[in-house]
Each structure stands twice: as C-alpha cells, then as structure tokens.
Recover the amino acids of this structure.
C-alpha cells in the first residue's frame, strides 16, 4: 500500500516537474505578478528535492540565487540531505544575516504601525522581542553592527514609552540606548564576524541611514518626534551631561 502511495507521489511530482518546465517556457505570457521566473525555478528545485535528487536541486537553487534569497534553502538542503555541515554553514550564515536585517526592518514597521494606532503595548512588545532575538546573537565584549541596531531599538522603545506617557520608562530605555551608542561609537564595526553562529568567509557590511554616529542617530530620531521631542531631548541632555548614565543601572 505504502509503495503504491510513494509511486503515485513520485509520478505526480514528475508530472509537476514537466508542468513547471512548460510554464517556464511560457513565462513571457504571464500576467500574474505573484508568478515569475524566480518562483517557477524554485518550484522546480523543490520538486527535485522531493524526488530525492538533492544535488540537482541544490544546483538549481544556486543558479537561481538572486541576491542570496535561496541561501537558507541551500544551506538547509546541504545540511539535512547531503550531511555536509561545513558547506552548509556558509550558506546558513549568509542567510542568517539577511534574515536579521529583514526582521529589523519588519519590527520597525510593526512598531510604527502600532504606534499610529495608539497600541503602544503591542509596539513595545515587538520591539523588546526583537531585542531579545538580536541580543541572543551578540557575543559579550565584541562589537558588531548589532550594537548599533540595539541602540536604535532602545531609542524606539523610549519613543513608544513617551507616547504612552511613561516618562520614567522612556528615561530607562534612553539610558540604555546612550550606553549602547557610546560602546559602538568608541569602536564602530559594521561587520558581522563577531556574532554567534556566523561561519561565512564572505564579508558582510551593514549600511544604514540612522546617522554618521549612533549618538547622532539617537538625537535625530528623537528630533523627528512631534509631541515627544522636547521631553525626550531634555532627558537626553540630562543623560549626556551628567553622571547619571554611569551611576544608574543598565538592566
């Protein structure tokens, strides 16, 4: 019975492969924007995985690896199907960095959307969740771009707290943001070699528009707030011009 099911699935997969190949030939006639050459080629690679033709599947993924979008799938298949961990880790590391940057943008978008809706609790929770995620990748005592990203997230937390009229909380997050900013600005490193689980030989360098320095970025982010700007800048002045930043706990 199981052999019959397996044969049926294999037969269906081979038929799917034929149809995807045919669709690829006709892609110029397609008007559905959700279907394109990249998606069809990846579907073909998936079918090869299902058929157990892993080397062929991986080669298809590599040939269709636009901007590294298939890195995670390639690394996963090499690790789980071919059992070649050393080769897999390079692709998985590249995918990790890409996903970290995407999550950072995703979370920023969520936080802004929730703040516009005055759902400050949800905005704060997703910012703190992303901090936990990024901090889990950070190696103690080693600078990386994640330190600058953390300062940005902490500043966003301070803004959300101020929007929610929680000024003590806003001060708490701004203090942590200033500490993170000073650490990064003292020895700026826009690379990712100093993070956990990173095994790529390919250098990654982050680019952002936050500011030339992290402290400059914090000031600019605060200055862009309409209602909360004055109160947050007052806190910033107190933190940067007094010993409070040293005396108070960073926890």
């Amino acid at each position: 019975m199981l052999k019959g099911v397996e044969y049926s699935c294999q037969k269906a997969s081979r038929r799917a492969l034929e149809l995807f190949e045919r669709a690829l030939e006709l892609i110029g006639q397609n008007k559905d924007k959700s279907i394109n050459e990249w998606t069809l080629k990846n579907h073909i690679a998936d079918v090869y995985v299902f058929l157990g033709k892993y080397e062929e599947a991986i080669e298809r993924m590599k040939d269709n690896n636009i901007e590294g979008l298939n890195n995670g799938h390639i690394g996963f298949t090499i690790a789980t199907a071919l059992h070649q961990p050393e080769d897999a880790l390079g692709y998985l590391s590249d995918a990790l960095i890409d996903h970290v940057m995407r999550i950072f943008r995703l979370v920023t978008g969520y936080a802004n959307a929730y703040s516009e809706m005055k759902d400050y609790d949800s905005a704060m929770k997703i910012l703190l969740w992303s901090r936990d995620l990024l901090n889990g990748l950070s190696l103690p005592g080693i600078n990386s771009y994640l330190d600058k990203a953390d300062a940005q997230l902490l500043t966003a937390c301070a803004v959300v707290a101020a929007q929610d009229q929680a000024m003590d909380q806003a001060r708490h997050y701004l203090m942590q943001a200033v500490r993170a900013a000073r650490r990064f600005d003292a020895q700026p490193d826009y690379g990712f070699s100093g993070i956990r689980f990173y095994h790529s030989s390919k250098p990654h360098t982050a680019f952002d528009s936050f500011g030339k320095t992290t402290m400059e970025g914090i000031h600019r982010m605060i200055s862009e707030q309409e209602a909360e700007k004055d109160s947050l800048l007052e806190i910033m002045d107190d933190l940067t011009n007094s010993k409070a930043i040293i005396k108070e706990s960073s926890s």
Notes: Residues 1-6, 246-251 have pLDDT under 50 and may be disordered. The chain has eleven helices and no strands.
